[in-house]
């Protein structure tokens, strides 16, 4: 099978970039031919606001290049991972013109919400859900804290809804969890065209021993990821529990200040994946304090692969992944006191720790391996007509 993977990379590498690269490697190892059309958000700095706004709605450059590639080689599937902002839905029309089925993975909520997160002012916001024109996102400047930038995104959403782009050009949409699938259905997507295929961890990092006496956070240092909740919870702990933080982002200053008056918190910055997995395998638990509707929770699944339990906020897709008191513990999102309580209870409890580690690894083996994911992906491509 020949697949053209289409992806717009982020300036700060995240789970979306890692997940689509894993998918491409997996397909190649099973003997499929995978070519990539890629744009980078690093180019944004070279565009003025008007140019960027126009590209967000329609990139003639992307249309021409993707059309050229589809003319040169007979592809079976165009898999659009992320088209925003520089590729645009022009990619969809290039595939339609060439008669190649399109599969689009929905890794965020961009087609329903200008900032893609359903998150504003530190809490969940669904003001744009169900609106033909997502004007609240423009009023509040939800994308990049800019009304003009938000207007460009809202124009893209509105224009392509009016053109029925998604129904005319996409054979099948893929969400990563049932929670995310239901959100898109609520937003007007047809249930029969939205299927669930989770992310996976590949290669298998192998089970760890969990002998490190520390908790671990891995991710973007930002409000939606719950960094403020995490730091506040550690400030209220009656007994200091070592915490290692891996990542970078806008709340780096908050983390740095926390390390100055709480020596049991260690900020490691960005780390290579091999080191992240080593840290996960040794950690007693992973903390996942997100406050937005995560579409998946890749680091949680990586923790499961290492046999490491997860203490997670009871919100969005992550609550779907973490079976409370089996592979981890759930706490109320944004509630630092509840997080501190659940962490303390987990830390003091010894009886179920071994069984929880075994259950975490079993959940990975049953749901998130490369072998299982390959079968699911081939089913998606077959259903899409590839």
Features:
single chain, 386 residues, alpha/beta, Rossmann fold, 2 domains, six-stranded parallel sheet, 16 helices, 44% helix, globular
CATH class annotation of the largest domain? Alpha Beta
Mean pLDDT: 96
- Give the distance, in angstroms, between the N- and C-terminal Cα atoms: 8 Å
Biggest sheet architecture: 6 strands, parallel
Q: Count of DSSP E strands? A: 14
Low-confidence stretches: none
**Could you name the CATH topology of the largest domain?**
Rossmann fold
Q: Give me the strand/helix succession.
A: EHEHHEHEEEHHHEHEEHEHEHEHEHEHHH
Oligomerization state: single chain
| Strand residues, percent | 15-25%
* Strand arrangement across the biggest beta sheet: 2-1-3-4-7-8
CATH superfamily membership of the largest domain, which one?
Glycogen Phosphorylase B
Shape: globular
Number of domains: 2
How would you describe this protein?
The protein is an alpha/beta fold. It has 2 domains: 2-200 and 369-384, 3-Layer(aba) Sandwich (Rossmann fold); 215-367, Rossmann fold (3-Layer(aba) Sandwich). It contains 16 helices and 14 strands. The chain has helices at 15-29, 49-57, 60-72, 90-98, 135-139, 147-162, 165-169, 178-186, 227-236, 252-261, 273-282, 298-305, 316-321, 336-348, 353-367, 370-384, and strands at 2-9, 33-40, 77-82, 102-105, 119-120, 123-124, 172-175, 194-196, 215-218, 243-246, 265-269, 285-288, 310-313, 328-331. The strands form 3 sheets. It has a 6-stranded parallel sheet, with helices on both faces. It has a 6-stranded parallel sheet with strand order 11-10-9-12-13-14, with helices on both faces. A hairpin with a 2-residue loop joins strand 5 and strand 6 (123-124). The mean pLDDT is 96.
């Amino acid at each position: 099978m020949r697949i053209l993977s289409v992806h717009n990379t982020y300036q700060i590498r995240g789970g979306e970039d890692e997940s689509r690269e894993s998918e491409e490697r997996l397909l190649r190892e099973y003997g499929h031919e995978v070519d990539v059309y890629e744009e980078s958000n690093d180019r944004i700095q070279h565009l003025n606001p008007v140019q960027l706004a126009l590209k967000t709605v329609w990139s003639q450059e992307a249309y021409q290049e993707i059309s050229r590639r589809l003319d040169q080689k007979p592809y079976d599937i165009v898999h659009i991972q992320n088209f925003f902002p520089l590729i645009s839905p022009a990619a969809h029309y290039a595939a339609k013109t060439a008669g190649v089925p399109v599969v689009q993975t929905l890794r965020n909520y961009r087609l329903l919400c200008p900032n893609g997160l359903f998150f504003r002012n530190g809490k969940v916001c669904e003001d744009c859900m169900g609106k033909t024109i997502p004007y609240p996102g423009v009023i509040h400047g939800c994308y990049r804290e800019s009304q003009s930038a938000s207007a460009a995104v809202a124009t893209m959403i509105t224009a392509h809804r009016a053109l029925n782009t998604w129904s005319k050009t996409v054979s099948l949409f893929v969400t990563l969890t049932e929670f995310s699938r239901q959100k898109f259905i609520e937003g007007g997507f047809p249930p029969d065209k939205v299927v669930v295929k989770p992310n996976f961890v590949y290669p298998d990092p192998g089970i760890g021993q969990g002998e490190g006496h520390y908790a671990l956070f891995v991710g973007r240092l930002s409000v939606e990821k719950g960094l403020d909740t995490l730091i506040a919870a550690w400030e209220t702990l009656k007994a200091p529990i070592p915490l290692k933080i891996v990542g970078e982002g806008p709340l780096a200053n908050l983390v740095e200040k926390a390390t100055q008056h709480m020596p049991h918190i260690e900020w490691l910055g960005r780390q290579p994946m091999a080191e992240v997995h080593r840290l996960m395998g040794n950690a007693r638990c992973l903390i996942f304090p997100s406050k937005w509707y995560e579409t998946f929770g890749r680091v949680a699944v990586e923790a499961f692969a290492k046999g490491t339990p997860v203490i997670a906020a009871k919100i969005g897709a992550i609550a779907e992944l973490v079976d409370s008191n089996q592979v981890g513990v759930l706490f109320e999102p944004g509630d630092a006191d509840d997080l501190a309580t659940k962490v303390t209870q987990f830390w003091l409890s010894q009886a179920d720790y071994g069984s929880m580690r075994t259950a975490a690894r079993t959940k990975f083996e049953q749901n998130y391996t490369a072998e299982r994911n390959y079968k699911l992906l081939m089913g998606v491509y077959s259903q899409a007509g590839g």
